[in-house]
Amino acid sequence: MPLFEGIHVSYTGEKTAVVLDIGAAYTKSGFAGENGPRCILPSELVRPKTGQLVKIIDFIDKEELYDVLVEYLHKIYFRHLLVNPKDRRVVICESILCQSSFRDMLARVLFRHYEVPSVLFAPSHQLALLTLAANSGLVIDVGFTESLVLPIYEGIPVLKAWEAIPLGGKAVQTNLQSQLLEGANVTTQEQGERPLSSVISSIEERILEDIKVRCCFTTKFDRAEGIHAARLKESGYGEDGATGPKPPPGVDYPLDGEKMLHIDGKIRESAYEVLFEQDNEERSVATLILDAIRKCPLDMRRYLSENIVIIGGTSMAPGFKARLKDELYSLMEKPKYKEDLAIQVFKFHKLPAKENYAAWLGGAIFGALEVLGSRSLTREQFSSTGRVPDWSSISDDNPKEEDERLPVPRGR
Fold this sequence. Notes:
Layout: E1 18-22, E2 26-31, E3 39-42, E4 44-46, E5 53-55, H1 62-81, E6 90-94, H2 100-113, E7 118-123, H3 124-130, E8 137-142, E9 147-153, E10 156-157, E11 163-165, H4 169-183, E12 185-188, E13 192-195, H5 205-215, H6 221-235, E14 251-254, E15 259-263, H7 265-270, H8 285-294, H9 298-305, E16 308-311, H10 320-331, H11 335-338, H12 358-367, H13 372-375, E17 377-378, H14 379-385, H15 399-405
Parallel strand pairs: 1-6, 6-7, 8-16
Antiparallel strand pairs: 1-2, 2-3, 4-5, 7-17, 8-9, 9-10, 9-11, 12-13, 12-15, 14-15
């Protein structure tokens, strides 16, 4: 139990709300009014039936998901936050692409199992702007499974202009693993230096993430062009005489007490290139921003380009923001964007928090406001409707239909 828990009381007399940001990779949890989360936990649990460690978002079976959320929230409330859930409102920071089934099941667990007074589901992109005391901007969330861009103008999300691509930290780790298994070597005490692929067939996700964070970085735009030109030459499509830049030095990474992984400089430098290399549809993380701006009205475009907010844990990679800005200026030279967009300047906001918990901080700010109660979904309202209203259907003429679609698991 936190010392002097009774101090955590708002000026209205209520205890401060609990703020949860359940991401694809990590969950941030803490209390409203604080400047940082109390704990950041992996969003994963052991599957009860098989004993396999999987991400919470990967649970499909509704009954199993209910049990998993009960266990996961129990760990958050009683092991890390050390508070009684019945006494506190809840603020959920969610993505606009969050599945309705997951949102409804989360609400059922909070209301029916933990009996919380109310729950507020707030879009993470809007909460990130709240940390800057701004009501307009272009927010890009570079997360674990995807990158999502959403323009917000005068506090209203421009839903017709959102853009998303399945590129994020997971894609970087997949690219990193393929390069390591293809070209990295490992030294063992018994057999000496050998190719990594001859020792192991796959690398654990936690090790890949640690290598990504500790050893890899986003290279500069001019170096990326040189590397790309050298690759084209090797494949027979590039110009004669094209040579890539000198690679950075390699590093040694201990896999365990007996194996030492040698990571080449080329691998360290090229791991994040998957985010900026355009696919068959000429889309990348950088094109999402320009495509979203192009879908907005003319009088909004210049303001959005000068008020870009970057959040998400993957955007914390060294050199990411500088590379993203160079990519934007380079794309503006192409006819596809030069003819439609008359943008001269791109400006990025500096957040008052780390990018990986910026949305949580916005939820903590909103959770400390007096209007939280009037904006939240109460337990009585959920009991009468059986569902969580979303942006597309604020009211439902037949709410019990949804209640039957997502039954409460047996024994609850």
